[in-house]
Amino acid sequence: MYERQTETARQKNRRRAVRRQRRLLFGILIVILLTVILIFSCCGRGAQAPQTTPQQTVPGSIAEGTTARQAEPLPEGWEYRASEDLSLQDGTLVLVNADHCFDPALPETVSVYDNMTGSYLVKDIYLSLTEEAMAALNRWMDAFAAQSGRRDVNIVAGWRSFEDQQAIYDNAVATKGQAHADAYIALPGCSEHHTGLALDLDTYDLASGTSGGFDGDGAYTWAVEHAWEYGFVQRYPPEKSAITGISYESWHFRYVGLPHSYIMSTEDLCLEEYIELLRQHPFTGEHLKASCQGAEYEIYFCPQDALVVPSGRPYTVSGNNVDGYVVTVHH
Ligand SMILES: [Zn+2]
Q1: What is residue 182's predicted lDDT score, i.e. its pLDDT?
Q2: Which of 329, 298, 297, 299 is nearest to 314 (CA)?
């Protein structure tokens, strides 16, 4: 009797336990279902593409599909330009340093070996630069050779891939130590050489087959002092290393183009400082003016969502690889 009662009690307990389990399972299922519904509804909202219409630039008017900032009317002679075909990584004023990396796959470059004049040497047939930097290098080195009679400047570095820079960095760490690598070698992805706008100079004596380095002294002083006339700047001057993050490199030159090389040289600004200066000259404020080599220029900065350009006057646009565009108007 006692056993049967116990057996009945056990069966009741088991049934209760089964019911509890079922209720628990049902509850869990409901929670899972609600979570799934919630996730899908959130993802759906996040994945929705913003409704935009292609921007069209109509002189003197506000383009369709404008951003909030572009709703502001412009003075006569200026227009908004759609920036879909532009990138912050396009142009000669891209700032590349430890804080602002650059995609090495972006620039289109041409072979230095195939395009060089006879005024200088090149390390190998693989070296390349952007077409604009290449043409400027020819003009610069032709002028230097004509002035000095020397044709022994050797171009030893131009555009570099991510893997090239990685190999250089690893080699510097292995052979000269981490401190040297950190002082002189940019991290892969953050090297100016990824832009195709930077180059390294050396000297090479064909008779003895020896490299002499490029310290910019003696006969080569002219090449350094006149680099700006051809759009180049010495990118890592000794007194700017705290700002650039790179120790003095007498051999590393960067093409920024005129009139920027002129302003940077005369005002003694490294690229970090120049980009900051340009940001203080927005379209809506006072534009930077420059006059060099018989040409007049007007320069200003535009945020990414409100690129303003002159109507019917020549200009160039460059991304700064940070937060906007620099417009250079040619008068
Ligand atoms: Zn370099």
Answers
A1: 87
A2: 329
